[in-house]
Each structure stands twice: as structure tokens, then as C-alpha cells.
Design goal:
This protein is mainly alpha-helical. Helix content is 52%, strand content 9%. A three-stranded antiparallel beta sheet has the order 5-9-6. Strands 1-2 form a two-stranded antiparallel ribbon. A hairpin with a 6-residue loop joins strand 7 and strand 8. The model has no long low-confidence stretch (mean pLDDT 91).
Length: 464
């Protein structure tokens, strides 16, 4: 471990970093990750959730290295996998996945061109930073940088290398399940990582080996998949987590579209230009709040929402309903897609109508742009066992079988059973649980009636 270090980690005990990895960690571009929280503002409901993309990246590097060594990859392959795992999150913006959504929303398609992908912009930013940051280039060289970006994109070398860093069984998920569980103080995401590693094998021709599940390891993988499902349903879909994410998203949109805050627009309007890449790494959570939550005269609407977050004056969930309770199929379909760009005007109209039936707050009516209609879906545990269409395969016999077919537990689960919900968040307050129940009960019918009328509007040809 010449010139390497050991880092004390609350999840993995000790993380051993090699010499070049230590140098990469010390670069400004990597140190920036200390300022980006892994779970955005989940600490408003889980006070311990203050961990960052920095410690997560160290953990992914550690886990990827352990798995690569367990699979007996070559020294060069282990090194490449560890480096790719260490650098895989460089492209995250303020509040992590919230930035992903906004980068996709405001991408400048005119400048990017129709042939360029925009669905995973943060990954494109990561690749650009790896290949162009002077410190990274100096430490590991241009050739390794290119191999890393290829591995993180379409893959480099045998397919198993990419699968260790990005795939349904990857080190990224392994670390964040354990890390998020630890810092949120819950046990939902726990699984036996060492037995999980022993349950994975390499199968296929030389130089084309795939990462698969040993037939004797199916139960260990079941535990891992269930951990991911339970953490999603209990933490990532927690009411307060959903509300805070949507408040940040709405603040950004109001800041750009209504308040006209140029710095905010510059941050999220990805156009692939050198100017964008120069500006983007300057921002983390603290810089974002310091700039955009401090000056109401410059961005009154966005600033007010962000200040509400800082003071934990959160929007309240005034309505929540399973989508299956809406009898009209077209209404359910429209509500599922109400957050998409083509339905933006329809969503704004819905929110204004809901604001009109909400109780006045003191002497003022509710600001309709602070009312948020938000749909979300919790996919069945069987579907969630896949990742971006890539399934987990069990190395059984001459022809590998999909995990969800090989597992008796998962084979018994209805793949089509998804839980879809629509919720409404609004800037109102209540003084007690009794008051809360009364207000929500009184709002149930008028809000439901407004949402139910969606399909009628479409029939009448009203603009969407």
C-alpha cells in the first residue's frame, strides 16, 4: 500500500485507497462532492442523512474493488474498475438526483442537436470532467481516462467490468443501500454484502464474460433485491422526501421560467459548451442555497420556496390517492403523465384550480404556483429487480435463466402489480392532528373532482 491510505468508514469499517486514488480524491473536482448530499434534503425527516456523494464514492470504489478481487479479475482490470467506481459520480449537481431531472428538463436541444442523447446528462458531464480535468489527466493519464469513460458508457473490455460499476448488481447500489440505511437510521436496506459477493460469478467465453448469479446464491440476491425495494418504499418514497424534492424542483422552475434568474438558468441549461462545463463544477448544495435562497428581490418566488426548505416550513400533503381509485382509464393515464413537459400547461391549470379550493392562509389566498400535483409509481419488487431493462441472470446449465424466473420467491410475484399514486402538496398549515384530519377530509372531494375532470377537458379539446 505504498503511499496509499486507510480511511475509517462507518459502513465498511476501513476503506483502503491506493496511491493514485488518494491523489484523485485530493483534487478540487472530487472534493466538491463533499458539498453534495446523497439524499438531497432527506435530513429534514432523517436527521442523520447528511452523508454526501464524497463518502459514497469512496464506498463504491471499495465495494467494486472487493467484488473485482472476489471474481479474480486481473490487476489491471481491478485497477480500472476501482478508478471508474471512484469517479462515477463527478457529474452530479446540487441535491444529486434533483439536478438530473432539471438538467434533462432544460437541456438546450437546439444547440445539442437531435442526434445527441440528453436522457442521462449527468453521465455526459461525468465523462467530460474525467477526460478534461487537468488534475485527473495528470494523475492517471489520458489513456486511462478514456478507458474509464468507455467503461462507464458502453463498456470497456469484458462486459463484467461495466456490470460491476453500473448494472443491476453493481457496487453503486450495494454501497448506497447500506450507506443510506446507516445514515437514515433504518434497517430496510441491509443485506449480507460478503455473501452477496460470494454469490456472483463470471460466465461466458474469454474476454466476453458476464456478471451472473451462482445457482447457489439466489437467496443472497433475493435479500439484496428486497432490501432495495423496502428502502425505496420506506425512505426514497417517504412523504417528506417527496415533498422536499418537489419543492426544490418547483423553486428551480419558478426561478428560471418566472423570476428569470440568469445564474440559475445558466446552471441547468445544458448545451455541451465549454462555458457550461466551466460553470457547472462551481456549484454544490451550499453554494446553491447561498445564491438562490438569499435574495428575494432577484427571484422572489424561487427564493421563498427555498427559504421555506431552509426553515422547514414545508408544503403539506393535502391529498393522496392510489391511481387505481380513479374509475376513468384516461384520467389515470393523464395523471400518471401530468409531470411531463407536454402536460405542463394542463398541470398548471390543475394546480390553480386546486389552489382556489384551499383554505386561505391568514389574509391571503394560496399562491397557485406553490401547489404541486405529483404522481409517482412504486414498481413491483419483481420489476425493480431489473435495471434499465437489463435483467440479472443465473448461471444455471447451458442457458442462463433470468433471476426472477429462477427465484421461487420472485416467480410468485405478479410483475404487473405496480402501485401508482397522485398527491397534492400545498403551502397551508394546521395546528394539530385533529385540524389536519379535518382539512384533508374537507378537501378530499373538491380535489378529487378537479382531478377526475381531466379526461373531460381533453375531450373538449382544451389546450394541454
Amino acid at each position: 500500500m505504498s503511499n496509499g491510505i486507510r480511511v475509517r468508514d462507518p459502513v465498511h469499517n476501513f476503506i483502503v485507497l491506493r496511491a493514485d486514488e488518494v491523489k484523485l480524491v485530493d483534487t478540487p473536482i472530487f472534493q466538491r462532492l463533499r458539498g453534495i448530499r446523497q439524499l438531497a434534503m432527506a435530513n429534514l425527516v432523517y436527521p442523520g442523512a447528511l452523508h454526501t456523494r464524497f463518502d459514497h464514492s469512496l464506498g463504491v470504489c471499495h465495494v467494486a474493488g472487493l467484488l473485482a478481487e472476489q471474481l479474480r479479475l486481473s490487476n489491471d482490470e481491478v485497477e480500472l474498475v476501482r478508478l471508474a467506481a471512484l469517479l462515477h459520480d463527478l457529474g452530479h449537481g446540487p441535491f444529486s438526483h434533483v439536478s438530473e431531472h432539471m438538467l434533462d428538463w432544460y437541456a438546450d436541444s437546439a444547440k445539442l442537436g437531435a442526434d445527441q442523447k440528453t436522457e442521462k446528462i449527468h453521465e455526459r458531464i461525468t465523462a467530460h470532467l474525467i477526460e478534461n480535468d487537468a488534475d485527473i489527466q495528470r494523475i492517471i493519464g489520458r489513456d486511462k481516462c478514456e478507458k474509464i469513460t468507455r467503461l462507464l458508457d458502453d463498456g470497456f473490455g469484458q462486459p463484467a467490468l461495466r456490470a460491476i460499476v453500473s448494472g443491476p448488481l453493481d457496487a453503486d447500489k450495494q454501497d448506497y443501500l447500506l450507506r443510506d440505511s446507516h445514515f437514515c437510521g433504518v434497517a430496510y436496506g441491509l443485506f449480507d454484502i460478503h455473501q452477496f459477493h460470494r454469490s456472483l460469478v463470471l460466465e461466458g467465453p474469454p474476454d466476453e464474460k458476464e456478471l451472473m448469479i451462482d445457482p447457489d446464491g439466489v437467496h443472497a440476491v433475493e435479500q439484496y433485491v428486497l432490501a432495495k425495494y423496502y428502502l425505496t418504499t420506506n425512505v426514497y418514497r417517504h412523504r417528506v422526501r417527496l415533498i422536499t424534492d418537489q419543492m426544490i424542483i418547483r423553486a428551480i422552475r419558478l426561478g428560471i421560467d418566472v423570476d428569470g434568474v440568469e445564474n440559475l438558468k445558466r446552471l441547468f441549461s445544458f448545451d455541451g459548451s465549454a462555458t457550461f462545463y466551466e460553470n457547472y463544477p462551481k456549484w454544490d448544495d451550499s453554494a446553491f442555497l447561498a445564491e438562490f435562497a438569499s435574495n428575494q428581490s432577484r427571484g422572489p418566488l424561487s427564493c421563498e420556496l427555498l427559504q421555506r426548505l431552509q426553515r422547514r416550513r414545508l408544503l403539506k400533503r393535502v391529498f393522496s390517492c392510489p391511481l387505481q381509485e380513479f374509475k376513468n382509464t384516461e384520467t389515470r393515464t393523464l395523471l400518471t403523465k401530468i409531470g411531463e413537459r407536454e402536460n405542463d400547461a394542463r398541470r398548471a391549470k390543475l394546480e390553480a384550480e386546486i389552489a382556489a379550493v384551499l383554505p386561505r392562509q391568514g389574509d391571503q389566498a394560496v399562491e397557485p404556483r406553490f401547489v404541486i400535483v405529483h404522481p409517482y409509481t412504486i414498481r413491483s419488487v419483481r420489476v425493480s429487480s431489473r435495471n434499465d431493462g437489463a435483467g440479472m441472470m443465473v448461471a444455471r446449465g447451458p442457458t442462463p435463466r433470468p433471476f426472477e424466473q429462477d427465484s421461487a420467491l420472485f416467480a410468485s410475484i405478479d410483475e404487473g402489480y405496480n402501485e401508482g399514486y397522485v398527491e397534492v402538496y400545498a403551502p397551508i398549515f394546521w395546528d394539530s392532528e385533529t385540524d389536519k384530519r379535518r382539512i384533508r377530509r374537507e378537501l378530499e372531494k373538491p380535489i378529487r373532482d378537479i382531478l377526475e375532470a381531466l379526461h373531460e377537458e381533453k375531450k373538449e379539446g382544451k389546450p394541454s
